[in-house]
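[agent] plan:
  1. take the single chain provided in the ticket
  2. run structure prediction with default settings
  3. attach structure tokens to the ticket
  4. add a short note for the reviewer (M.T.)
[agent] executing step 1
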Amino acid sequence: MTQATAPRSWNELRPNRRASIPEGLWLRCPGCSQMIYRRQMEANLHVCPDCSHHFRISATERARQLCDQESFVAMWEDLRSGDPLEFRDLKPYPGRLTAEQVRTGRPEGALAGSGFVKGRELVLCCLDLTFMMGSMGSVVGEIVTRSVELATERDLPLVIVSCSGGARMQEAGLSLMQMAKSSAALARFDESGGLFISVLTDPTTGGVTASFAMLGDVILAEPGALVGFAGPRVIKQTIRQDLPEGFQRAEFLQQSGIVDSVVHRKDLRSQIARVIDYANK
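[agent] step 2 finished; step 3 output follows
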């Protein structure tokens, strides 16, 4: 007869409750520090139901939220970045691009095409923060420019949703050239009488802010979005002065006249439709 081995502690007799909870089912809101049920947050357009903190979302999710169901048609998905500078930091640039494509399922840091928002046809371009921080390289700049040219050709409103860390350092001067190229295309679009609605989300910084993001006929921003060229810490260290409360946040920029309206994500579709209707009067 064998003798049963006693457990080392009573914890061995308790069910492992932690193991039975799927990982990632709950997350902590960075705005109010409350624990949020992930599916509830996603159903609420990725906005905290307690404090309305707007979580960052991918370009694919942004297009899905803004456009009428199954109306968005993506374009220029075959464009790929080259490596003319043979740039290398911790890894070669082509290897970094491939890793990002595998991780995100996206070919580049921008998604663009045509679609409808509450029945209004338009051209939509969304930068994708999940792909190399939405940085603007040659392909992102080309997609933005082609979006502007498509809107010009079809005489459609243009909506660009910016969410970027700025110029892509791996492409150096080639990245900075995209600022001029996209801005020149927007100048031609403006001369043709086109309507450009710029939507600023968190964060919109660097070369994107210094070019097309701030050239909208109407500039909208999501609540709490960080918008600026350099970050507030860099500015504070440079000018050696304390910055105003909420500096570079969407609400502060609205008070300063830089942003026309701060719009909750749930109201963004309706606001875009209203602006288009007003422009068509």
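[agent] step 4 note for reviewer: Residues 4-21 have pLDDT under 50 and may be disordered.
[agent] ticket updated
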